[in-house]
Amino acid sequence: MQISENMSVMEKLRILTDAAKYDVACTSSGTSRGNDGTGLGSCVQMGICHSFAADGRCISLLKILYTNECVFDCKYCVNRCSNDVPRASFTPEEICTLTMEFYRRNYIEGLFLSSGILHSPNETMEQICKALRDLRIIHRFNGYIHCKAIPGADPALIEMAGWYADRMSINLELPTEEGLKRLAPNKTRKTILTPMRQIQNGMAESREYLGMKGGNYGAYHFTQERKQKRLAMRGAKDAFGTHAISRGVASASGAHAISRGVASASGAHTVSRGVKGVPGTNADNGGYKISHSGSGDSVITGTDLMRQGKASSGLQLWNSCDTKRGFVPAGQSTQMIIGASGETDYEIMAVSEALYRRFDLKRVFYSAFINVNKDSTLPALDSQPPLRREHRLYQADFLLRYYGFEANELLSPSRPNFNTYLDPKCDWALGHLELFPVEIESADYDTLLRVPGIGVKSAGRIIRARRTGRVDFDSLKAMGVVLKRAIYFITCHGRMFQDFLKVEEDYITRSLLADNTDVMRGFGEGVTYRQLSLFDDFPNGGLV
């Protein structure tokens, strides 16, 4: 084992960028395309990942670990304590130097900082906080910073990091608690969800203090809010069967709305961003936590300290730029490993939906399991990463966040996994052909979103175009509708794209598969497309 004290900064950089490659909370993929000397660029060497700015720009981030030393022994992790691998640790000063020098050379536009557990969660988080503080305060670095929260670290350290980072994340790792106990015995669901809740509460308090409308809520929140408003306008209940409650206003049932983050009139308890007595607003069933004060005094929160200019637990005085930027302004995310344990797609999507609903996450990232350790509890070493399954989960995740779908619409306990040969939206539509075809001239926005080939932007364009004239198939193509999928599910002025098209499952399935030649690549020449049951003739039962 190499000793970090004897290493140069560049040697540490080589070790710690390579060790960070399995944390996929970015848009980088697991490709191994190298450079033979005749081209430009390489995907083999790690160290640079990508994210997206608020204006849509793709930005490059320096992706490193603070340390790959770890006291935990997670069976799926290359950095677990039982592995004999080169170990290294940066100092906060080295992280600052690397970030600033790379930024000055226009290599990067921000920092993605994660870490193993060095000695203890508190010690590791303290060093990360020092690096972030020095970057912001001493070096005046205003670029993007994504910081990982360390499970089990003191809440005061988590809060401190939240004022300096743009985005924070804490990885759920495995979808179920049983899988976590089996493969990551040093971690518990509580140590992961507690800081996740703290970050959520801090964001809401900061949002309220700064007067932000919407703020850093994720796309799922806005989609569900839009659905509830549309249903309310139709005189119906919201999607979860409860009455919609306006924030800061008394509910329709007469319950008193309590201001978020401040003491109630009795002074005996504080309701944090919730309404007392309303089902679904406590920490256990998907809402927010009610904290109690034994003395009857108001509970002092990070927002109160921010207003007063005082330090949290004596750690740090927040300066004006921290206050203006807000707490974790880019929101929080998490990551799940796919294929290391036996969870179904239905279980994974149900967990993702619960995380979006309860913790206001920006993103849930899915990482196809890559077996780097020899362990009997893990899949075989020669097994391939389930990249196609990962892709389908990302597609379904978009349906949850932007299209108003729910997990139990896409899958069910009797049908627990996605069809790897059809995208989830097409697969759902084929199972609900009684809803199709949809008339383009009269369908509302939410109905248009359910049509394969019609996205969020194109649905909005259709709605706007109908106000000024007729919409035909040529104009749909110009609006960005993918007609090769949509033509089987829509009509324009009562007519389908072609008279011979049939709204029939086998016919549509054969046509979609025939058009999608890439999805069938590598499966031999004897494949036919007569009916869905022929999926059983594919290698591995159609699963990759």
Short description:
The chain is α/β, with parallel strands linked by helices and 544 residues long. It has 18 helices and eleven strands. Mean pLDDT is 77; it is low at 26-33, 236-321 and 517-544.
**Number of DSSP-assigned strands:** 11
Give the name of the CATH superfamily of the domain at 4-212 and 327-341 and 360-377: Aldolase class I
Rg for CA atoms: 25 Å
User: What shape does the CA trace take?
Assistant: globular
Proportion of residues in helical segments: 25-40%
Please identify, by name, the CATH architecture of the domain at 4-212 and 327-341 and 360-377.
Alpha-Beta Barrel
How much of the sequence lies in strands comes to 5-15%
Mean pLDDT: 77
Please give the order of strands in the largest beta sheet: 1-2-3-4-5-8-9
How many helix segments?
18
In terms of per-residue confidence, which ranges show pLDDT below 50 for 5 or more consecutive residues? 26-33, 236-321, 517-544
CATH topology (fold) name of the domain at 4-212 and 327-341 and 360-377:
TIM Barrel
* Main β sheet profile: 7 strands, mixed
CATH class of the domain at 4-212 and 327-341 and 360-377: Alpha Beta
How many angstroms separate the termini?
36 Å
Q: What are the secondary-structure elements, in order, as H or E?
A: HEEHEHEHEHHHEEHHEHEHHHEHHHHEH
Helix/strand/pairing class, anyone? alpha/beta
